[in-house]
Amino acid sequence: MGQKIQKILEAIKPEAAYFTEHDGHRGGTLVVNLKDVSEVPLFAEPWFLTFHAIVEFRVAMTPEDLARANLDALGKKWA
Q1: Which helix (H) or strand (E) holds 78?
Q2: Which pTM value belongs to this model?
Q3: Residue 69: which residues within 8 A CB-CB, separation 6 or more?
Q4: Which residues contact 40 (CB under 8 A, 6 or more apart)?
Q5: What SS3 state is found at 25?
Q6: pLDDT at residue 58 greater than cutoff 90
Q7: How far apart are alpha carbons 37 and 45 in whole angstroms?
Q8: What is each CA distance from 78 to 11, 13, 63, 73, 75, in whole angstroms?
Q9: Are the CB atoms for 17 and 6 separated by under 8 Å?
Q10: Strand stretches in the chain, DSSP E
């Protein structure tokens, strides 16, 4: 298992990787930078095909990303 995980990590090069339990099962959290949503399979398929894993993605933004979101205009439109 360790060699397979190492092979995947070398291929996808996450910014950070943490391994823990998740709901009583082996789990991990990887931090990756997606430039486009078409990269999702690049990061997910190795885990699906190697371990039949459940893979979930959470979107996070930097302060700069949030500044580009134009929250003032959205607030005026939806408030």
Answers
A1: helix 71-78
A2: 0.81
A3: 61
A4: 34, 57
A5: strand
A6: yes
A7: 14
A8: 42, 39, 22, 9, 5
A9: no
A10: 16-22, 25-31
32/12 Cα distance (integer angstroms): 8
DSSP 6-22: HHHHHHH--SEEEEEEE
Q: Are strands 25-31 and 16-22 parallel, antiparallel or unpaired?
A: antiparallel
Residues 6+ apart with CB under 8 A from 17: 9, 28, 29, 30, 31
The encoded tokens of residue 58 equal 């959470």
Query: Alpha-carbon distance 50 to 45, whole Å?
Result: 8
Supply 73's token pair: 């205009």
Q: What is the torsion angle, in degrees rounded to the nearest 10, for the CA atoms of residue 22, residue 26, residue 31 and residue 35? A: -100
* pLDDT tens profile 8-34: 999 999 999 999 999 999 999 999 999
Amino acid at 33: N
